[in-house]
Structure formats: structure tokens, C-alpha cells
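Task 17 of the worksheet. Students: predict the tertiary structure of the chain below and write it out as C-alpha cells. Keep your answer in the requested format; marks are given for formatting as well as content.
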Amino acid sequence: MPNMPTRSDESRSAERAAGRGQWTAQTNTPKRSVFGNYRAESAPVSDPARSDEQPRHAGAGKGASLQSSIDLAIARSFIHRYLAKAFEDPAPEGWEWLCARETQESLRAASDIVGTPSVPVAAFSPGAWDSFFNACLAAFGHAARGCCPLNEIEYGDIKADPLFQPHRLADLAAFYRAFGLEVAEDAGERQDHICLELEFMCVLAAKEAYALEYQLDPDQLAQCRGAQKNFLREHLGRWTPAFTRRLAAATSDPTLRSLAEFTRAFIESECAHFGVKPGSEELSLRPVDEAADRMCDACGLDKLPPGALAAT
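Model answer:
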């Protein structure tokens, strides 16, 4: 996006927006981002919490509408970040953040603004760690092809197009690159991992909040919103319904099941917000094709712009 703000400018802006509205910036946010040049520790929406302070824009009129739009973008960004953290490889540090009282309060506040029921507080509690960890191992395994794969290109029939996989990965890489994001060298995941896709939407929603706060050129705001719509239609909204349905059916762990159901509800609300039809919950897993997998790593399609391969 041309002339978009730097990471630090964006952070300061949304923190000011947060202070005016229903949000208060917190400091105990997770420090790691799967995007190496995205500073998650300074992200304005990594850990918002409801405040008793009334919005300065309260009341009817354009100001109130603007503040509501900013609050919604911040809330959406936080939920995407929360889900990205929840679907990382389970680790005690991440679990501690997910279970923290401030994080849970922030999630409830964000869910209220978005209009999506939140994950039950009891689902993420320190005592549920062992059960959640074992449930993740059972559902996701140690490779992409567990019973509930966490990667986009594992979903869908590719018999009609052997280039389906490299096309998808190339398009994802182009989306990230178009917004100046580079996958961290230690991320350990492909471009189509759900953590990367969720965090990318977190970044775009944060940029939307910044554009609204600073009243940037309408074309820049439209470009940011258009990217979110296209990304949901072509990627995250296409396969997440099938993934979350499969996950909820495959696990008996209450935390993982609650996470699956919340993710499905939130992504459906995101699709509705942007006027996108969610993908089918019945989308099946693709057949394993080792030759196609090797092609994904060596096809060289990742230099194309985002959306260039949408027709395929």
C-alpha cells in the first residue's frame, strides 16, 4: 500500500484511538510475530481492554460513526491476533498469555464490539494446559497432514489443476509482500499456515484503524479494505469453515473445541462484514501428491502480485 505509515507510527496512532474510546493499551503482549518485520510488541491491538472512560466521540453524528469504525477495526485486529496465537504450536509462554485475565477481558470486549460470542473464560485456564496440549498433538500431529491440517492448501480437490498448490502459495506470498511483510526466518511454517493468514488480517485491520484515525486518502482506506475482502474470499474465508468443522468434530477437549467454534463464528462474521460468501464446511482434504508438494517449493510463482492467480 503506497504511503502507508511505519510500524511505530501505526502503533502510536491506534494507541491514541484506543485511549479515546473503549480500549486501553496493555504491555504484556506476546512479543513474537510470524512476520519478521512486524513488531508485535508495539502492535496497537495486541491486547486492548475495556475502559470505563466514555468515548470522546459519544453521541450522534459523524464523529461517533468514525470512532465506532475505529473501535471495530481495533477489535477485529485483536481477535485475529488472539486466534493466531491460539493456533501456534502450544507453548507455556503463549498459553500464559491466552489465559491471562487481561487477555480474556480484552477478548470479551472485542467480541462485544464485533458481535461474536467470545470463548468461555473457563475454557482457557492454567489447569487446562495438559489437556489442550495433548488435544493439539492428536488433532494436528507433527506434520501438515494430521487429521485437521492447519494449512490452507490441504483443503480442496486439486485433481483438475495440478498447479493449485503452488498458485495458492504464490498468491499468499504476494499478498504479504504487497504490504511490506516478510515471513520470519524462524516462523517454521508455510505461507498458508492459519497463523500467518490470521496475523496478516490482524495487520490489515490495524492499518484500517490507522487510516481511519488519520483520515488518510480514501483510496488508501479502500485499498486496505479491498485487500481484506479479497484475502477472505480467496484464502482465509475459503477453507476455515471446513477446518473448524473438522476440528470441532475431531476433539473432545473443551478448550480446543471452543476455540474451533469461536474461530468459525468469527470468520463467518468477517465474511459477512465484507460481503463475502464463506467457503463450504464440507470442503474435503486434498489427496496427497508428493510431486505437487515438491513443485510448491520450486515453481517460482511467488513473484506475482496478489490476486494474479485468482482466476485459476
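Marker's comment: The two ends are 24 Å apart (CA to CA). The chain has a mean pLDDT of 78.
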